[in-house]
Design brief:
The complex is a heterodimer of chains A (111) and B (112).
Chain A (H helix, E strand, L loop, with lengths): L3 E2 L4 E5 L4 E7 L6 E7 L6 E7 L4 E3 L3 E6 L4 E6 L8 E8 L5 E3 L3 E6 L1
Parallel strand pairs in A: 2-11
Antiparallel strand pairs in A: 1-3, 3-8, 4-5, 4-9, 6-7, 7-8, 9-10, 9-11
Chain B lengths: L3 E4 L2 E4 L5 E7 L5 E7 L5 E8 L2 E5 L6 E7 L2 E6 L8 E8 L7 E2 L3 E5 L1
Parallel strand pairs in B: 2-11
Antiparallel strand pairs in B: 1-3, 3-8, 4-5, 4-9, 5-6, 7-8, 9-10, 9-11
Chain lengths: 111, 112
């Protein structure tokens, strides 16, 4: 079946490094993708989104890249900080505002 | 001010009981959702309501019944609770036609 998934379940980085979290999707008809950050004991928090007519979008310290050819999505976090430690989810909009989430990647930032 | 709020935050109950979880949003959104997050952190949509009308109803047991008294509230009632219902339940909301959903803090349900 179609799914949204992540390559790495856990990513450990040092403070100040750049982090890259990857996501693969299989529904070529999806036209909208979104990244969420979930801290321990909290609900998912919107980080950044991108439409399929773009291949890159930048926010504050975060960049999302979309490669439609290989159905791949990535989230880059610059100068990672301890406060960035969380589980990160990619999600795709399957229509009617139905978001399908990936399995999540845990980011651990060491000081 | 809390944008999307849920009550209770924790719910521990016995198998077979009936329980409700409440959700309220003060963002002026007209679409609300319920998600279930299992022990492996997998997050899956259950229901969505737009202006009190059911839009999305995933393959969820009939024991789960959402109720929307107005567009700022979406409650989730669960009958005959089972062990497998133990999870974190998240409410979310959005503007109609906009993809960005804003999540509540979650309700941690434990069925014993």
């Amino acid at each position: 079946g179609e799914s949204v998934g992540l390559h790495l379940p856990t990513l450990s980085v040092q403070e100040g490094d750049n982090s890259i979290i990857n996501c693969a999707y299989s529904n070529s008809a999806s036209d909208y993708f979104i990244w969420y950050k979930q801290e321990s004991g909290k609900g998912p928090q919107f980080i950044i989104d991108i439409r399929s007519n773009m291949d890159k979008r930048q926010g504050q310290r975060v960049t999302v890249l979309l490669n439609k050819t290989v159905k791949h999505l990535s989230l880059q976090i610059a100068a990672t900080q301890p406060g960035d430690s969380a589980v990160y989810f990619c999600a795709e909009n399957r229509g009617f505002q139905k978001l399908v989430f990936g399995t999540g990647t845990r980011l651990l930032v060491s000081p | 001010d809390t944008a999307v709020s849920q009550t209770p935050k924790y719910l521990v109950t016995q198998m077979g009981n009936d329980k409700s979880i409440k959700c309220e949003q003060n963002l002026g959104h007209d679409t609300m959702y319920w998600y279930k997050q299992d022990s492996k952190k997998f997050l899956k949509i259950m229901f969505s309501y737009n202006n009190k009308e059911l839009i999305i109803n995933e393959t969820v047991p009939n024991r789960f019944s959402p109720k929307s008294p107005d567009k700022a509230h979406l409650n989730l009632h669960i009958n005959s609770l089972e062990l497998g219902d133990s999870a974190v339940y998240f409410c979310a909301s959005s503007h109609q036609g906009e993809e960005t959903q804003y999540f509540g803090p979650g309700t941690r349900l434990l069925v014993l």
